């Protein structure tokens, strides 16, 4: 009987932690921006919705898409693996933006009323610690193009 109770308790705790992660990210804002002189893309992810702006002056209204449950779970998984305190210290793997070889990109996260932001990095070449999350966010926006 104890074994059965322990198994149920473990399953309950596991589901509770998973729901907490979903609630935390539901109240989180992820903002990815990539820009050069002739290119602009701002992708904002909030609570299973993606807003895509391609106009730096906000003259055109942003596009909005809903994230599928499968993609949302994937984003949650990537988000959980990120150490937000280390976000500003992540090292960029390339410096193509210095000679116009890539757009300048960054990731801003607003989590539990606190802001976290990366240093600038090359669009399509994010630091490896956030690579999967950034690539997922960008791929969601690219499906709308």
Describe this structure as you would to a colleague.
By secondary structure, the protein is of the alpha+beta class. The chain is 34% helix and 26% strand. Strands 1, 2, 3, 4, 5, 6 and 7 form a seven-stranded antiparallel beta sheet that branches. Strand 5 and strand 6 (114-117) form a beta hairpin. The chain starts with a helix and ends with a helix. The model is unreliable at 1-18 (pLDDT under 50).
Features:
single chain, 145 residues, alpha+beta, seven-stranded antiparallel sheet, 34% helix
Question: Summarize this, please?
Answer:
With 145 residues, the protein is of the alpha+beta class. It has helices spanning 2-26, 69-80, 131-142; strands spanning 29-35, 40-46, 49-53, 63-66, 104-111, 114-117, 121-122. Strands 1, 2, 3, 4, 5, 6 and 7 form a seven-stranded antiparallel beta sheet that branches.
Order of helices and strands: HEEEEHEEEH
Output the structural class: alpha+beta
Dominant shape = globular
Distance between the termini: 57 Å
Radius of gyration: 18 Å
Specify the oligomeric state: single chain
Given as residue ranges, the uncertain stretches (5+ residues, pLDDT < 50) are 1-18
Provide a count of the helices. 3
**Describe the biggest sheet?**
7 strands, antiparallel
Mean pLDDT: 86
How many DSSP-defined strands? 7
Helical percentage: 25-40%
Strand fraction: 25-35%
